[in-house]
Amino acid sequence: MATGVLSYRGSAMFRMRLVTATLTGKSVLIEDIRVDEQEIGLRDYEAGLLRLLEKVSNGCRVEINETGTSVLYTPGVLTGGKFSHDCALSRGIGYYAEALFVLGPFCKKPISAVLRGVTNESLDTSVDVLRMVVVPVLRTFGLEADAFVLKINKRGAPPGGGGEIKLTIPTAKALSPVLKVAGGEIRRIRGVAYTTRLSPLFASRMVDAAKSVLVDYMADVFIYTDHYKGSGGGASPGFAISLVAESETGALLPAELTASKGDMPEAIGEAAALLLLEEVARGGAIATVMQPLVLMYMAFSSEDVSAVRFGTLSKYAISVLRLIRDFVGVVFKIEADRTTETVLLSCMGSGHANTARVVQ
């Protein structure tokens, strides 16, 4: 192994390892990728991620062995700019968009990307939650609100995909520290139920089922329907629902569910509503799905203290904490609150600055 190369084994955290390596400029060697599985080596969506990193940077080098079980990644300079990318249909567009969310603020030029593929599926965060929750939360780290936009051009349900989004991410000289220590009482619930290449009644049935559960919790519930047909509806029929609970302190707590073959709209709407109530019950000022991205932004913010209250820490977020320690040397202080059953995470930002940024 070359000097100064961080080494890992297995396919876990593949995306975040590459993203963190790109931000820090450190090479990373990932070996034994799925060596114990029948189909060994990289998957198509991981190869797609490597191609995306090549588009958003200049000078990166990727060395893959013959079996695809070992990857040596040497990052280049983050350039950003305009590009398009066809995402693998085995994962959602969110898998790739989240990587760009982390890299975008530190690029030379603002990112203006068109991503094509599956917009809503069960493995990755949907484009609806990205638009309604992720983008607004990340804006609070000092990013220009009007320049940080996600627009859904086309819907794409699995397995055929065909969806398309336009993602614009501004650059920043440095990320600002944040203090989000109070979740607050929920004041309203909003959401969207979409259908593509199906009857619009599927969306209405999901909305009615979700409301039947949520109105017992609070009166201010509004879920709008979004129907796509023709070329805007992608290559496959499908339907899904995304819900967001908004608190008095501005916390955004989402839940979502995408239908599989044979699922009924009423079952999807009711189950999504119950998932939302579970997310609200966990407490905290940051949603579970947001934990990895927020931790990354906290670690790479300017040299000041950030503090955020989470509900239950996910296993993925715990792995991100270890990854941040390995690459950046930032260690978080974790304080458990037994009364609210939440955890307060705080850290001193690494002071990571964007020296390549072009000022318009």
TrEMBL record:
Protein name, UniProt field: 18S rRNA biogenesis protein RCL1
PROSITE patterns: RTC
Pfam family, one: RTC
Top-rank taxon: Eukaryota
Domain RNA 3'-terminal phosphate cyclase insert as annotated: residue spans: 184-280
A Gene Ontology cellular-component term: nucleolus
GO biological process: one example: endonucleolytic cleavage of tricistronic rRNA transcript (SSU-rRNA, 5.8S rRNA, LSU-rRNA)
Record's subcellular location: Nucleus, Nucleolus
InterPro entries assigned to the protein according to its UniProt record, in alphabetical order: RNA3'-term_phos_cycl_insert, RNA3'_phos_cyclase_dom, RNA3'_phos_cyclase_dom_sf, RNA3'_term_phos_cyc, RNA3'_term_phos_cyc_type_2, RNA3'_term_phos_cycl-like_CS, RNA3'P_cycl/enolpyr_Trfase_a/b, RPTC_insert
Keywords for the protein's UniProt record, in alphabetical order: Nucleus, Ribosome biogenesis
GO molecular function, one term: RNA endonuclease activity
Stretches assigned to the RNA 3'-terminal phosphate cyclase domain: 8-334
Family: Belongs to the RNA 3'-terminal cyclase family. Type 2 subfamily.
